[in-house]
Amino acid sequence: MATKSFDSDLVRSLAELLDQTNLTEIEYDTGTLRIRVARQGMPVAVHHMPAAAPAVAAAPVAQPAVSDDAAGHPGAVTSPMVGVSYLSPEPGAAKFIDVGSTVSEGQTLMLIEAMKTFNPIRAPRGGKVTRILVTDGQPVEFGEPLVIIE
Predict the structure, then answer these.
(1) Is the dihedral of CA 63, 88, 119, 148 positive or negative?
(2) Residue 43: is its pLDDT beyond 50?
(3) Domain spanning 63-149: CATH 2.40.50.100
(4) Which phi and psi (to 5°) does residue 17 adopt?
(5) Using CA atoms, how far apart are residues 78 and 67, in angstroms rounded to an integer?
(6) Where in the chain is the domain with CATH 2.40.50.100?
(7) With 0-12 CB in 10 A as exposed, 13-18 as middle and 19+ as buried, what is 89?
(8) Does the first or last residue of the chain, that is N or C, have fewer Cβ atoms within 10 Å of its Cβ?
(9) CA 141 to centroid of chain Cα atoms
């Protein structure tokens, strides 16, 4: 993908994350920019490899099933990264959103923790939250539907 400006510092940061976490690849996507950094010399059997789950997530928690209609829903807000979802700003605090909440464009819907950094997931448009597809503390994958806004 050719771009007019190339952020070599971002690529270096992603490469450092690979070293620090022993991951084989990492992908960064903002919607307009997509960067994938992978280690060379390591065989990769499939395009998307599951990320190593944190020790806390070793005991699976009941997770809502993401149906095919949620994945293709025009109001689906998807995860821009692999990480762990958090529905409130800190333990014991009120959730950012609930089903039925009305949100405005840019409003924080949840946080995704990746590499000990909490990244706000913001509403791409205003509307009503009709479904929350993840639970607090649930590991999420890149592109996974998180919330439906109608």
Answers:
(1) positive
(2) no
(3) yes
(4) -60, -40
(5) 14
(6) 63-149
(7) middle
(8) N
(9) 6
User: Residue holding tokens 């499939």?
Assistant: 46
- Is there a contact between 136 and 97 (Cβ–Cβ < 8 Å)? no
- pLDDT, one tens digit per residue, over 55-76 is 444 444 444 444 556 777 888 9
Distance CA 135, CA 60 (A): 12
Mind listing the pLDDT tens digit for each residue in 137-148? 999 999 999 999
Residue showing tokens 């009941």: 62
Instruction: Give pLDDT, residue 6.
Output: 63
**DSSP 3-state assignment of 147?**
strand
DSSP H stretches of helix in 22-147: 68-71
Going by DSSP bridges, is the β-strand pair 117-122/139-140 parallel, antiparallel, or unpaired?
A: unpaired
Identify whether the C-beta of residue 130 lies closer than 8 Å to the C-beta of residue 118: no
Residue whose structure tokens are 């994958």: 141
CB under 8 Å to 42, separation ≥6 — which residues? 24
CA quadruple 67, 70, 109, 127: dihedral sign: negative
Q: Beta partners for 121?
A: 110
